[in-house]
Amino acid sequence: MAVENLEDALIDELKDLLHAEKQILKALPKMAKTAENEELAAAFEEHLEQTRGQVERLEQAFELLGKPARAKTCDGMKGIIEEGSKQIKENDSGPTLDAIMIGAAQKVEHYEIASYGTAVAWAQQLGLNDVAELLEETLQEEKDTDEKLTQISQQINPVAEEGEESEAREGAMAR
Ligand code: FE
Ligand code: FE
60 CA distance to ligand 2 centroid (A)? Predict the structure, then answer.
């Protein structure tokens, strides 16, 4: 169905976001289990809980718009999550995989920040202030999560760097 106006575009964006959040709900428990760093595991767990609330907010937004909360395949998020799962499969747990997972998770957050940012602007333009406020709450959570991940990466990245250097040294000594 063709999108004919900004309200249609907003509804379309919300369907895309609903599918994106549902994919994230499936990915986060695995990331939390794989994380070696406890703070990172806890951050993934916390964001899982937040994501459940974000799905509820999307459902509320659909209700306010008088539309069924129907998800529509979000290929963008699908690609980001597929790349992340591949990395988890190919690498052993440890600081390097933790650093990689932070990178993958930040791609997810940035995608969400872009999509929610757009949706908030469109809802505001349409005078749908209650919808805009709901989406704004989620947008803030995504931004906070992104910042938290940056903070955690500052303790993980140096360990990941060390890990690989010492492995290389051990390899050199064995030769
Ligand atoms: Fe989210
Ligand atoms: Fe998120």
Answer: 18
Residue 175 maps to a domain? no
CATH label of the domain that carries residue 104: 1.20.1260.10
Asked if residue 172 belongs to a domain, the reply is: no
171 within domain boundaries: no
User: How far apart, in whole angstroms, are the C-alpha atoms of residue 149 and residue 39?
Assistant: 10
Structural domain of 67: 6-165
pTM of the model as a whole: 0.91
Question: What is the whole-number distance in angstroms between the Cα of residue 135 and the centre of ligand 1?
Answer: 10
How many domains, the chain? 1
Tell how far the Cα of 156 is from the centroid of ligand 1, in angstroms: 23
Cα Dmax for the chain = 70
Spatial separation of the C-alpha atoms in residues 5 and 136, rounded to whole Å: 22
Contact 27, 139 (CB under 8 A): no
Domain assignment of residue 173, yes or no: no
Length, in residues, of the chain: 175
The tens-digit pLDDT sequence of the chain (175 residues) is 688 999 999 999 999 999 999 999 999 999 999 999 999 999 999 999 999 999 999 999 999 999 999 999 999 999 999 999 999 999 999 999 999 999 999 999 999 999 999 999 999 999 999 999 999 999 999 999 999 999 999 999 999 999 765 555 555 555 5
Dist. CA 175 → ligand 1 center (Å): 48
